[in-house]
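User: Sequence in, structure out. Go.
Assistant: Echoing your sequence, followed by the structure tokens.
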Amino acid sequence: MLPSMAIERAETHPLDALLVCGGRYHDFDFARLELLKLFGERPEIRTRVAGDYRDLEALAEADFLVSYTCDVRPSEGEEEALAAFVAEGGRWLALHGTNSVMEFTSQGVAAPRTHPLLMRTLGSQFIAHPPVGPFRVRVSRRGHPLVAGLEDFDVEDELYLSELHEGNELLLETDFVGRAPGFVESDWPDPAPRPVMYLRAVGKGAVLYNTLGHCRGPYDMRPLMDVYPRTERCAWEQPVFYELLRRGIAWAAARER
């Protein structure tokens, strides 16, 4: 059995969560349902669900933000609202493709630097990944409450190769040197550790980013293809990922108000 993070649930009033779940090329129905199940384990959490960042009123009223997106591009005003939400004390649990902006070109998938404020707030921008496959995840800071008691583990998922901003506290990492076929920025010769999960202080608040959790069903690659040939669940098939999600939700819900 996996160890649980020792966070006291001292809340005596409801907490308002905003879950932003949507975008392209992933099974957002599956991810949304799984995340709502985890929220449901904590009866104090009341959740609004959105497919993008347009509901700024819901963001302003939220005690914390959780996102599972891919290529969801906030407007300039939405970027500013997200950055202000965190800087003023909010906590943002960002999952998988939240830091992605993608364009399909004749040279491959590009990662345009069109949303610098969003990426500075998140601490990284997705650039590429090798094909879905197995890799080893190492615990970087074993004494940190978000990973305390966890052992290194193997996972089959998308290994994110990202452009990083300074100030990220690495909690989980992996190694990769090689190529990411199909992406414009495909060569990754630097042997530096690749972040899998990190914590980032932003003003009075913080971001917890977990890159794991790719999922895709048969109809999620439209219009690129009519039917995707397989169903991918990746880290969602492992108990350790759900433990990380539970700890992340507990962390986000524990923000000072």
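User: And one key feature?
Assistant: Residues 6-11 have pLDDT under 50 and may be disordered.
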